[in-house]
Amino acid sequence: MPAAAPLPAFVRLDGARTSLVIDCRGGAPVVLHWGARLAESADPATLALLGAREEAPCSPAQTPPLSLTPLIGTGFPGRPGLSCHRDGQGWASWTEIVAVQCGEDSVEIVSRDAANGMTLRHTLRLAAAGDVLRARTTVTNDGATPLAIEACDAPALPVPAAVSDWVLFDGRWSGEFQMQRVARTVGAVSRENRRGRTSHDAFPALLAQVAPCGEQLGEVFGFHLAWSGNHRLWAETLSDGRAYVQLGELLLPGEISLASGAAYASPELVCAWSDRGRSGLSQAFHAHVRARPQHARLRAKPRPVHYNTWEAVYFDHDPAKLIALAERAAAIGVERFVLDDGWFPARRNDRAGLGDWTVDRSVYPEGLGPLIDRVRALGMEFGLWVEPEMVNPDSDLFRAHPEWVLATPPAPQLGFRHQLVLDFGRAEVRDHLFAAIDALLRDHPIAYLKWDMNRDLSHPGDADGRPGAHAHVLGLYDLLARLRAAHPAVEIESCSSGGGRADLGILDLTDRVWTSDTNDALDRLAIQRGLSTFLPAEVMGAHVGPTDCHITGRRVSMATRVATALFGHFGVEADLGALTDSEGAELAAGIALHKRHRALIHSGDLVRLDRGEGEIAFGIVAADRGEAVFSYTQLREQRGYFADPLRLAGLDREADYRVRWVWPVEPVVGSPLFAALRDGLIVSGQSLIAVGLQPPRLKPQAGFLLHVERV
Asked: Which of 63, 142, 246, 578 is the most buried (most CB within 10 A)?
């Protein structure tokens, strides 16, 4: 037999702007560098030497490696990336690299713990679009007895000592994706989520920033776990100065036990680097999301303007009123009409009906056909709300199959919106729901499903008394994949009480996320700002809500509501019959404005502008820098008489641009600059970037949009 090829000492992957270098000489793979692209002449052995350390007092003679999976058996003093055992034995894992398979943009490194009967496989790919690194860890049981997996994180990545702070994403229902900066010190920053969905309060993402870092300038590393369930985040600085980031699925006790030959794969870690501030980082993530094969379906046609019935009618369904709403929606330019909760039997409130996915004939005596026919005759697509993972105790499904719900008896179920969670780890549950939803889609010309999930997995026990949170997420993915295969033209939205399930795992199987249940434009500006770190505008649902927000009670002008929703997958969620003529005309003008610029908004580069706490400003710039739309909103009264000049970014310094005020409809009174901008003013890119424009004096909660086009 031919001799086995020698293992490479180092592995290097290069993107357009980044490099990844891994040292494979020891027993475990260690990242030497991930960040700015290195010169072709850079010698990995020299890189390793540059970081070599002498023996420190009262320390190991050799520094325990911070490997892709830090292991207990190496003496690593931080959090191990793998925790496993066989009935309390074989827990101190220690591996040696046995194979390295390199591809054009990827590497697979196989390490084996022969003594404990376990193999680790690290798969890393540096995607061309955005230079985004995707990494996964897989553990395989090579032994004859079951291997209990307590934790197996995605590969750990080091960050340089220059990193000054972590940025976390926390929040709550109707206040998701809030950015929180934490200074980096010795010790760990940790977040854990046990809600069974991605959650509103612990989004699985982290930024590591090198000060000074802003929207346009500075070095920043971004990390996101593509997983829609329980997770843990760990960012630690050891006492020896090394810092690293780990993200992985949070496993419940006994949740993963591998039989001989079986394997567990961690969710993928998706991460990127930027030396152009947080905006550059977002551009990298957006380019990657847009380059996925799944995204091609979203480029096939313009993203249709939505109308959603929820905040107009709630559970009070009346076919005549709904047809009237559809007619008003079509008249102002809506392209998709979505019938929300309340169309199935006994659904006059949230206490009954979930699980019985047939049309309520007491409300719709002729079925949904007449409504759908009218919607389509008006030139709109028809969409429908469903919540398949849930069941009300007051439902035919629960009465027939009470054993199908997740539970942890004898502990009582925690009350949560009068509903329980179906066990998606059970094949018969998935088969039943596939049949019910498949029938709806076969019997009706439905173009869109709003897939909701309105409670946590508070008691995630399966029928055998074992934890079922992991199996539930995999079951959800399986059912979504089956429905997409059977109905490839149907778009699906991931909604979970708003932004409770908005991650790159669910987006592999859906077409947009509902960013938040609040349609308050001022709240939405911060929410969309946070999520747009990772997701582009075309997958973030953003709606114009009622005059008085149903959640906050705040009244925000139609102009500001439109300007905020414009920079997402635009929609309307209000009682159109309650609008005044002037409000209806302004909304129609806003929809027309969105249609004029949505090709740019849904393909361009997001550029956020550094402003004070009372302002939010950003733009979408075309890839060729020939066109842009910029947004400015003043959230509260200025401390001084005037805001600072608005210095634009992302434009071509050498070009001249025609700058026009395009929103709101009513002109600003008193500003000679903005009077000139109504007709268009030609300004050099250099001046727009270096000098900027003086915003007019605005009342709080007001703003404007500018269209910038190369002359």
From this structure: 246
Whether residue 410 has a cis bond before it, omega within 30° of 0: yes
User: Within 13 Å of residue 643, how many CA atoms lie on the same side as its CB?
Assistant: 29
Residue 265's DSSP bridge partners are 138
Are residues 231 and 206 in contact, defined by beta-carbon separation less than 8 angstroms?
no
342-387 pLDDT, tens digit each: 999 999 999 999 999 999 999 999 999 999 999 999 999 999 999 9
Q: Cβ(145)–Cβ(86) under 8 Å?
A: yes
Q: 10 Å Cβ neighbour count for 65? A: 17
Q: SS3 for 709?
A: strand
Question: Residue 134: left if φ>0, alpha if ψ -120 to 50, beta else—which one?
Answer: beta
Residues 6+ apart with CB under 8 A from 376: 382, 445
Contact predicate 314/342, CB 8 Å: yes
- Tell me the C-alpha to C-alpha distance, in Å, between residue 2 and each of 5, 365, 614, 657: 9, 76, 69, 66
DSSP 3-state percent helix, strand, coil across the chain (nearest 5)? 25, 30, 45
Please report the pLDDT score of residue 65 as a whole number.
92
Q: Is 517 a catalytic residue?
A: yes
pLDDT tens for 498-517 read 999 999 999 999 999 999 99
Please write down the HEC assignment for all residues of 415-428.
CCCCCEEECCCCHH
Residue among 131, 340, 452, 511 flagged as catalytic: 452
Q: Which of 340, 462, 517, 523 is catalytic?
A: 517
For residue 23, indicate whether it is catalytic: no
How does pLDDT run across 37-47, given as a tens digit for each residue?
Answer: 999 999 999 99
